[in-house]
Write a structure and sequence with these properties.
290 residues, alpha/beta, Malonyl-Coenzyme A Acyl Carrier Protein, domain 2, Alpha-Beta Plaits, four-stranded antiparallel sheet, three-stranded mixed sheet, 13 helices, globular
Length: 290
């Protein structure tokens, strides 16, 4: 994947390998320019690792930029396409002129919407009881203050980002991102793995994922993760096991909340990597649990 990026007309001055191998990356991983391709690279590597362990998905679903690696796992795009879609997603955020903010609140989409100040919007519907809000920095703070004033026991947490993903801020760079990605996508990849989209909240076709307009929507539109997972659960009749492929078990809470709503037997959940734990041990442990 580093070779793919270094072969670009204007390649990055850094490499994925160098950053991931460094013991002192400072604040780099909190900047979208780096965090986007780094996360996708880890996810693609994990997909390949599990494939070597003869573990392949029956269906996939992704959350926000996690859809990039999910599309790779579904064999709808190649690893080359995945790292480029991710790299440009991070790079284009440098063109955003407005400083934004995001926060997670322990409320449904409908309940959270009632507290939103002008300039804030629902960015992600994570579960029936978890919503991410995004937008202007002062609007997010006003929204959080309104929630706390109403009920201080409601969970609220600011995210460590200065980019308001899935809000009106992204419309500023949507055109540019689509133009960046378009030359690097083809219609040659195929898929035998159902892909449940958190852009639409339902099953989509492989050709949808080979369209640069889809990835623009992935950046701009609300993340309908809860709906996508519910659609997957409704379609799959057998006992379901969710393997979260990513650098941390970030979706464990939302998934458990979705499972509680589901009338069938609760699916099994297994994380791959967990923040603060040895990554090799975590990956081996996940494989051993399957």
């Amino acid at each position: 994947m580093d070779k793919v990026l270094q072969d670009l007309p204007e390649p990055p001055t850094w490499t994925i390998e160098a950053i991931l191998s460094s013991e002192d990356v400072g604040d780099l991983i909190n900047k979208a320019e780096f965090s986007q391709p780094l996360c996708t690279a880890i996810q693609v590597a994990l997909v390949n690792y599990f494939a070597k362990c003869n573990v392949t998905p029956s269906a996939v679903v992704g959350h926000s930029s996690g859809e990039i690696a999910a599309a790779y796992a579904a064999r709808a795009i190649t690893a080359t396409e995945a790292i480029l879609v991710s790299y440009y997603r991070g790079l284009v955020t440098k063109c955003v002129t407005q400083k934004g903010s995001m926060a997670v609140v322990g409320l449904s989409r409908e309940s959270a919407s009632a507290y939103l100040a002008n300039g804030a919007t629902v960015a992600c519907v994570n579960s029936p009881r978890s919503t991410t809000i995004s937008g202007d920095e002062d609007a997010i703070e006003q929204s959080l203050e309104a929630i706390r004033a109403e009920d201080s026991s409601i969970f609220t947490r600011r995210l460590h980002v200065e980019i308001a993903y899935h809000s009106h801020h992204m419309h500023e760079v949507g055109d540019k991102y689509e133009e960046m990605v378009k030359p690097h996508l083809s219609s040659t990849a195929g898929t035998a793995v159902p892909f449940y989209s958190s852009v639409t909240g339902r099953l989509v076709t492989p050709t949808t994922l080979q369209d640069s307009a889809y990835w623009r929507s992935n950046l701009e539109s609300p993340v309908l993760f809860s709906s996508a997972v519910e659609a997957l659960l409704n379609d799959l009749q057998n006992k379901v096991l969710f393997l979260e492929v990513g650098p941390h078990s970030a979706l464990q809470g939302p998934l458990n909340q979705i499972f509680q709503k589901h009338s069938k037997a609760a699916p099994i959940y297994i994380p791959t990597l967990i923040r603060g734990n040895n990554s090799a041990s975590s990956a081996l442990r996940a494989a051993g649990q399957l």
